[in-house]
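look at this record:
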Amino acid sequence: MVDLWEALVGPEIVVDQSVLQDHSVVVRDDHIEGIVPISQLPSEVTIRNLGPGFLTAGLVDIHTHGAVGRAFNEGDVAGNQQALAGLLHEGITTVLPTLASAPIEDLVHGLESLSAVQGVGGLPRIPGAHLEGPYFAQAQRGAQDAASLRNPSDGSIERLLDYADVIQMISFAPELPDAVALTERLVAEGIIAAAGHSDGRDEDLFACQRAGLSHVIHIYSGQSSTIRRGPWRYPGMLEATLVSDDLTVEMIGDGKHLPSTLMKLAHRCLAGRLCLVSDSTPGAGMADGSRYEMGRIEYLVEDGVGMTLDRSAFGGSTTLVSEMIPIVIAALGIGLAEAVAMVTSIPARAARLSDVGRIVPGFKADFALFDAQLRPRAVALAGQWQ
């Protein structure tokens, strides 16, 4: 095997909570060898000048339903490749392709088609799929297909777990029958148990946490809040999420799903464990007025976001995580390094990925290059620039 050394110079480098100037990332074959001042580079290393801008780790999206007109729910290998190529083009190098609630056999077909693109060259890394459903509460289903929702107690999980090696995460409502048993089963299979689309109370989330649940999907979206019974207040999923000490939590940072006040509240409570997800749909990259499908439901792109046709709920986002970086910097008043962590290292930790999402020695040489206005310019996967 040829031993290839290359030093990346030119842009400022976002490393954890710092932005380094006059430094270089040294890449050896497909991994990061080190970060050193340019003045200390060995003479024998090959220099690649990327020009000005910002270099980050390759972006990580753990909740995306598709892009550029194609949905992972289609169960179509060519469609998966098209959506994944669109994500890679925007600097997203690791993806948990997400399947919305659908009939069990449709989900199985979707998992089979995703297994066919795992490890395919020139596409983002796919550690596994994220099943968003079908075990959700009807009252908090949002744009999920009401006809496809089920209870974990009905035995259908066995069919899905025939494909456990293709699944990285399953999100479900913790208050449903046998939700704790489902959590225990997922943990035993090495699958991340996540809470979402729930109408439960805080004790429901806490019970599943004790069984190993570690993640909450899209805060505020599909989450119950405090209710009152007589004089007593009973916290819901939202409050339980905000006071948690160790959960990782998603937020859709498209500037459409949440106003800045709610985004700031989530950040104040969960900074360091709050990651951005696109919840992107086939509508990402499509013009207003376009229609798309996920599962067996049709949606509309309107005002730069996905909508159900009756406009009663958002139907996912049309904004990719690469585009969310400047949005959350403005909304939260945070610096570039913290915003980048929300789309790299924090989602990687949530998905239990140990070698992507950071520019540190030993990690995969996956990079996103942005210009001064934080627009994606180029992307590298395993050291190969696209």
Remarks:
- The first helix runs from residue 77 to 89.
